[in-house]
Structure formats: C-alpha cells, structure tokens
C-alpha cells in the first residue's frame, strides 16, 4: 500500500477484451472511429448487415401488430420457461417442419436471445477438455470469439471461391480427429452470399456421419435466396447426421433488434439425447437470459400470418441490390468478385493490392476508405480472409450506388501510376 491507497485485488479479464478484437462489432467500431468528422457527406454503411434503418426494408405490419397485441394483452409480462413458451416453440416447429421430410416437435425447439446466444449455447456445451470444432474460412467471427472464450480449439476448413464457396470436404476430413465434435456451415452464406444446393448439403451430412460429428447449421439467413439455387435446410439430412439448426426472425423479417432466435435439434435418431448434448444444453439455458416474453408471445402470429408478398418484396430488393453491387464492382479495378451473390446480404471481393499505392493490406484499405470517403467496408481479415473485403448490399439502392462510386473514386486517388 502506497500513500494510504489500498492494494486492489480485482482485475479485468484480459481474455474478454482479446476476444472482442475479432468480432464484427469490434472491427466496425475501429473503422467508425477513423471517420472524418469534417466530411459533410452521409456515411455509407457497407460493412454491417442491418438493413432495418432503410425504409425499403421495413418489416411487415403483421409483425409490428403482433408485438403490440402481445404486449397489450397483459399475458406476456412474466418470466418465460428456460426453453421458451410453448406456443412460440410449437409455431417455430411447424414453420421449420414445412421444409423437412419429418415433423419437428416443440420439444426440439429452444428459444434464444437471437442467433448469437444460440451460438454461445452450443459452443459452450461442446467445449469439453481437448475438444475441437471445425469452422469455415471465411466465416462469421462470433464463432471464433465464443470458441476462444470457451477454450474450444478451432480448426478451419476452406470455402472454395471458384466453386461457389462450397465446403472443401476433403479439407474437412483432413482436419478432423478423435477430438473433433462438430463442423459449422452457414447457409445462405455470411460472408459469401452463397447458397448450397441439395447434393452438396447431402455430402456435408455424409462427411459428418463418416467423422462421427454433428453439423451446426447456421440458417439465420434462411430463405433469403434469390439466385438459381433454392434454399434447402440442413435439417433435411438429420437422419444421416445430427443437425443443430440455428436461426431467428432477425433477417427474414428485418428485425435484428427484437432478439428472438432458436436452436433446433434435427435428430430423428436421438443421438443428441443419447450423448447428453440436450441435457447439457438445458443446463446452459437454465443459467442464461431468455428472449423477451412478449416477443415470444408474438411469434405464432408472425410466423403464421405474414403474407408471402412481404417475403417476395424483400427478395426482389435483395436481388436487385446484389445485381447492382456485382455490376459496379466490375468497374473498380482493384477488387474482384469471384461469384455473384445468390443469397443473404453480403458478397466477398478480393483486393488487388498490386494496383494500389501506399496501402499494405485490407485493414489499411478500409481505414483510409472510412477517413477519405465516409464509407464503411469490413476488411476480410475480420472473417478469416486477409486482403479480401466483405460488402453488404442490403441497403437502399441509392446509398449502395453512392458507396460503390466513392470506392471507385478512392481507387482513382490511390492507383499506382
């Protein structure tokens, strides 16, 4: 003790701050801090997949009215059960069963605080000593952060840009060993804008069965497919290998702030129960927070009454925006898009640094772009692909075009002479 000051024994957990470095939020915060306050132009947000700020992406009145009615009913001011209220779980089971060869039960559904809590739940459950998990590269960095926090070893398999970002299944087999517990796929793809076909997903399931691992299917962008390949849920192949499906209403209904997600077991053979995974999952949910009960109360009406016209409108907007994004990228010499996006809200483009003066990598590119053009783009290093960029096209068309024109102007200033 010096000058009468106590010797404080508490310290912050440095591991938590280290984990946040690799999250999208952490990287975007750094980019926003580099914006030029004197630039009077509107910031163009091409880095984050939240289109809810744009009027063309407003959710359906059916969803808004369902939330208001649930709140005003006075029936949903209570604590909810650990796994979620029964009407919501039943509605989600019915909603997902429409695309499956078998019928889900409400007992197969666990409600979560958005898809992120579903990720947190399953990675914590699987983090037994010595275990490892196979993650896609590029991928969604929240998986990396949560696995790191849970001391779950991460191994990365490649997605192949020249094959529509399909999974390198040979690479998956080479990575796996006796301690491998699961592999993650994200379909439709974040960050790639890919949509996997039936045959490829079947091969994923067969590979998982061969290796004795489960498939964690992140389908938060489920049904947001606007190319030639229709969306097929991984749960279709639950009889081949156990599938845990992660999803939410955030993306299809454009309400990420409502924080209503699910973790669903597609396992007609009961392997997840037999191995204790379901019991451990229940234990995790018992000590964690629940999604707001009044949002849960609105779910049945949202799922059952939303008109197909709303979904068609969103798909049309995304298709047009993806087309414009892809075409305008062709006019920017320093970036190359290997495949036009077919789903989700993002596209990956490769950065050609040899055409640029004074920019050493994707991070510096994005930092300077933010400062000089007030455009936010996510550096590929944040999703596991150094010297690539992830661009979202889920904003209004005029802002998208403006942002891409600014990137083109940025290239013009920094192009090698």
UniProtKB/TrEMBL annotation:
Domain annotation Aminotransferase class I/classII large: ranges = 42-407
Q: Which family does it belong to?
A: Belongs to the class-I pyridoxal-phosphate-dependent aminotransferase family.
Q: What is the lineage of its organism?
A: Eukaryota, Viridiplantae, Streptophyta, Embryophyta, Tracheophyta
Q: Which InterPro entries match?
A: Aminotransferase_I/II_large, PyrdxlP-dep_Trfase, PyrdxlP-dep_Trfase_major, PyrdxlP-dep_Trfase_small, TyrNic_aminoTrfase
* Any matching Pfam family: Aminotran_1_2
Residues of the signal peptide: none
Task: From the Swiss-Prot or TrEMBL record, give the protein name.
Answer: Aminotransferase class I/classII large domain-containing protein
Tell me one GO molecular function of this protein.
catalytic activity
Q: Name one GO biological process term.
A: carboxylic acid metabolic process
- Organism (species): Eucalyptus globulus
Q: Which UniProt keywords apply?
A: Pyridoxal phosphate
Cofactor(s) recorded for this entry are: pyridoxal 5'-phosphate
Q: Which residues carry this modification: N6-(pyridoxal phosphate)lysine?
A: 251
Q: Which domain of life is it from?
A: Eukaryota
């Amino acid at each position: 003790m010096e000058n009468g000051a106590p010797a404080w024994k508490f310290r912050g957990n440095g591991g938590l701050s280290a984990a946040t470095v690799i999250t999208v939020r952490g990287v975007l915060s750094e980019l926003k801090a580099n914006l030029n306050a004197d630039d009077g132009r509107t910031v163009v947000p091409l880095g984050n997949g939240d289109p809810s700020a744009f009027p063309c992406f407003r959710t359906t009145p059916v969803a808004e009215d369902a939330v208001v009615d649930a709140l005003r009913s006075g029936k949903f001011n209570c604590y909810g059960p650990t796994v979620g209220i029964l009407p919501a779980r039943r509605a989600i089971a019915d909603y997902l069963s429409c695309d499956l060869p078998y019928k889900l039960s409400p007992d197969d559904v666990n409600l979560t605080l958005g898809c992120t809590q579903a990720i947190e739940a399953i990675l914590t459950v699987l983090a037994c000593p010595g275990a490892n998990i196979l993650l896609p590269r590029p991928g969604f960095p929240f998986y990396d952060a949560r696995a790191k926090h849970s001391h779950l070893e991460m191994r990365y398999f490649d997605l192949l840009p020249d094959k529509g970002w399909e999974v390198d299944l040979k690479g998956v087999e080479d990575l796996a060993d006796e301690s491998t517990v699961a592999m993650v796929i994200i379909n439709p793809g974040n960050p790639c804008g890919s949509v996997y076909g039936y045959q490829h997903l079947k091969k994923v399931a067969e590979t998982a069965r061969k290796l004795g691992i489960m498939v964690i299917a992140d389908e938060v962008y489920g049904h947001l497919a606007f190319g030639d390949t229709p969306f097929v849920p991984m749960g279709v192949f639950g009889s081949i290998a156990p599938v845990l499906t992660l999803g939410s209403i955030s993306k299809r209904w454009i309400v990420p702030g409502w924080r209503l997600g699910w973790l669903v077991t597609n396992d007609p053979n009961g392997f997840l129960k037999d191995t204790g995974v379901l019991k451990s999952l229940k234990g995790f949910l018992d000590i964690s927070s629940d999604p707001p009960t009044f949002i849960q109360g609105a779910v049945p009406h949202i799922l059952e009454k939303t008109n197909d016209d709303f979904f068609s409108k969103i798909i049309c907007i995304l298709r047009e925006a993806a087309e414009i994004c892809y075409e305008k990228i062709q006019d920017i010499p320093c970036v190359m898009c290997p495949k036009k996006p077919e789903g989700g809200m993002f596209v990956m483009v490769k950065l050609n640094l040899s055409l640029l003066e004074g920019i050493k990598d994707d991070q510096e590119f994005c930092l300077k772009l933010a400062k000089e053009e007030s455009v936010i783009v996510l550096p590929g290093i944040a999703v596991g692909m150094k010297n690539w960029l992830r661009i979202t096209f889920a904003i209004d068309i005029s802002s998208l075009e403006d942002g891409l024109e600014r990137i083109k102007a940025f290239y013009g200033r920094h192009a090698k002479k």
